[in-house]
Description:
Blueprint: H1 9-61, E1 90-92, E2 97-103, E3 110-117, E4 122-124, E5 126-127, E6 143-144, E7 151-164, E8 169-181, E9 184-196
Antiparallel strand pairs: 1-2, 2-3, 3-4, 3-5, 4-6, 7-8, 8-9
Amino acid sequence: xxxxxxxxxIELLISSSVGLLxxxxxxxxxxxxxxxxxxxxxxxxxxxxVNDALRSIKEDVLRAGYVSGGVDTLRLYLPGGVSKADNVVxxxxxxxxxxxxxxxxxxxxxxxxxxxxxxxxxxxxxxSSATDTTTxxxxxxxxxxxxxxxxxxxxxxxxxxxxxxxSATSQYITIALTAEVKSNPSxxxxxxxxxxxxxxxxx
Length: 203
């Protein structure tokens, strides 16, 4: 009758080591894949949020100055309401702010909107009452344009170029926005958009 032998201690140690090594390799591959997928997800979130913010700003700026009737393009007023601002879009470079006014689709109400950086976020507001350049960049009752719990705005810069002709004056506005993911600052992006402000009515 043949005797049955079990595994020796050395064989058991070797097999255990091989199994453990296999588990470590599979685990590291899984974790690497998970981290890569998570990073990609954060990158997509960041790019989408920043792109949406810039698109929203651009679309709104294109409405600046619109009036359904009359002969003058709508503009914000200067302090005291004495006269109108020089340009359709008012820009305050010190506060990284731009503001403007336009009529809604019904032509019955004036709106103005403001976008700027404050405490590492972009905020905006829209109201139906008259305003001027002294209050246009106030941050009271403003809302965040980017998901501030996950994204930190690190830069928001606006440059303005005035283009004049014999009959009208227009503006080229360049807006640069940089942001990063709060939980992983190595994930960052910088986007730039350019807008040519429309001349709704010649002045």
